[in-house]
Structure formats: structure tokens, C-alpha cells
Design goal:
globular, 13 strands
């Protein structure tokens, strides 16, 4: 039997899609539940699994989780030393960005990008609500694009309200499995409703007190795209996959640093105060953007500037 795929997962229970397109309820077989895991969830959205049908219970028993091509994790909310796998087997990591109401900081963008780089996932930055930003806020988007586009990251301006940029986004997502993330309030749900009509996800309101959105997504879910492919809608995210990074490897996930790290005098250079550091020299002359370097240091020092 061909593997089925997990399209929704809550604890040990999930919803599965077979290779024939059948939707089945699923549950982990007992022996799999007993296995120790560094993550709090032994199965995740996007997993391919082998199943056997339990006719008595009318449920598919997951007998094996196949090796993951990649995945993205976050810190567990309950157990800080454990992690939760947000999704697996992903082609694109899409981050919805807004400069204000709510603000997506470059620190958050760089943590997201570093996570995607670590797991060999292509990053797409979508600057949403372009219809309401002008003047200073529009210039801020231009600044973001000027930082990330030269590094090879796709940057797209969209408006769910004016239906702009949607066709371009569809082309990027067609026939791919794309994880879509962003702070609550950036318009993620409205964009998903445009991409997958009929899903009708509930949109949230912006908190007047904090200018941030209120969570409407409570668990990751994989949704069919009518033009081909899947999107994985994720809860509001904060602690991303940098939780398991070794300090020496963090600069590997900043592509401009990775390209010149072999020019440093020391092979284990952390690009702090070491002599003849090519990365530090590049920052000084402007080849590496100072904000990117600042965000690198923040991840290195495990500082929280990622709101």
C-alpha cells in the first residue's frame, strides 16, 4: 500500500489522505506511542506514513512514520527542553510580513529564514496589506526588500483586500507543499481564503491595545490548493527552529556569511572579536547589512528581539 499523508494532527490523533485521495481518521499504533522522542508530537502535518485499517474501530492505525525529507520545529509551549514539529516534507517556507499593525521585525524574519535554511527549505517573503501602507510604512517595505531580495529571497507584495499579487503567489505555490506563517494579524488567513476558496478559515481582529492580531489558528493543518499543491496553515509562531542550533553553525544559515566564512583566519570563527574575520570586515564596508549581522548576534546570544 502506498503511504498516506498526515493533513491534520492533534496529539496522537490525525486526519490522513491516501494516495487515492480518501480522507481517513488516523491514530498512532500503541507501539509507536511508547517510543521516546525529542519532540512532543511523534507525528506531524506533512508526514508520510504506513497504515493498516482497523475495521472494528473504523480508524487507520499508523504503523510507521517514514523518514522526513525536512521539517520545521518550534520550542514546546509546555516543556521548554523539548520541541514540537510544526510540519514536515516542505518545499516552501512562506512568511507573511507587515511593517506595522502588527510589525514584523527583521529579527523575526531572519530567525525564520535561518530556520528554513537549516532545513533546506526555500523562503518566500510576502509583504501583505500593501493597499494600506504608504509614506514611511511603504518605505519600510522597500527597505526590507532591499535587504532580502539581493540575497536570493523571493519578495512579493500582496493585498488580500485589493486582490493584488495573488496570481503571482499562486505561481510560486503551484504543485508545492508550502508552510505559511506569520504573526497573528498580518492577514495570513485572508490570503489563504483567497488561495483556497471554500476553506473559509475564520479571520481574527486586531487588538487595539497592542496592535497585534488575536490567534485564530490553533493547530497546523494542510489544505488543498485548487490550482495544485498544498499549503500548511500554522498557529501564530514565536519560538522557531533556532532552538536546536549549535553556535558554530548559526552563521551557516546566513547565506552572505556562509559565502565568505572560509576567508576568516580561524575555521571556527564566530565572527565576534576574532582577528582577521572576513564577516566582520564585510559588515564594516557594507557588503553584509548591519541589521543582518545584528540579528545574527541576537540568535547567537539567544536574545529575544523577534517580536
Amino acid at each position: 500500500m502506498k503511504p498516506a499523508r498526515v493533513i491534520k494532527s492533534i496529539g496522537n490523533q490525525c486526519t490522513l489522505e491516501t494516495s487515492e485521495g480518501r480522507i481517513l481518521p488516523g491514530i498512532l499504533k500503541g507501539k509507536l506511542r511508547l517510543k521516546e522522542s525529542e519532540s512532543t508530537n511523534p507525528i506531524a502535518v506533512g508526514d508520510y506514513v504506513h497504515i493498516e485499517w482497523d475495521a472494528t474501530a473504523q480508524v487507520a492505525l499508523i504503523t510507521e512514520v517514514l523518514p522526513r525529507h525536512n521539517y520545521i520545529i518550534r520550542k514546546s509551549n509546555k516543556l521548554s527542553k523539548q520541541t514540537q514539529i510544526l510540519a514536515s516534507n516542505i518545499d516552501n517556507a512562506v512568511l507573511i510580513v507587515t511593517p506595522l499593525f502588527p510589525k514584523t521585525s527583521t529579527g523575526f524574519v531572519d530567525r525564520y529564514i535561518a530556520t528554513a535554511e537549516a532545513y533546506h527549505i526555500k523562503t518566500i517573503l510576502v509583504f501583505n496589506k500593501s493597499d494600506v501602507f504608504d509614506g514611511e510604512s511603504a518605505a519600510l517595505i522597500d527597505d526590507y526588500v532591499a535587504i532580502y531580495e539581493p540575497l536570493g529571497y523571493t519578495c512579493l507584495r500582496t493585498s488580500a483586500k485589493n486582490i493584488t499579487g495573488i496570481e503571482e503567489l499562486k505561481l510560486l505555490l503551484k504543485d508545492k507543499t508550502s508552510l505559511v506563517a506569520g504573526h497573528s494579524g498580518v492577514g495570513k488567513t485572508s490570503l489563504i481564503n483567497l488561495l483556497a476558496p471554500g476553506v473559509n478559515l475564520r479571520t481574527g481582529k486586531i487588538s487595539k491595545q497592542h496592535g497585534k492580531g488575536m490567534h485564530t489558528t490553533t493547530f497546523a493543518e494542510m489544505l488543498h490548493l485548487p490550482f495544485g499543491g498544498y499549503i500548511i496553515d500554522t498557529p501564530g509562531i514565536r519560538e522557531l527552529g533556532t532552538v536546536d542550533f549549535e553556535k558554530a553553525e548559526i552563521s551557516h544559515y546566513f547565506v552572505e556569511m556562509q559565502a565568505m566564512m572560509h576567508q576568516c583566519k580561524f575555521h571556527n570563527c564566530l565572527h565576534l572579536n576574532e582577528a582577521q574575520c572576513a564577516v566582520k570586515q564585510a559588515v564594516e564596508v557594507g557588503t553584509i547589512h548591519p541589521m543582518r549581522y545584528y540579528n545574527y548576534l541576537s540568535i547567537l546570544n539567544n536574545e529575544d528581539n523577534f517580536n
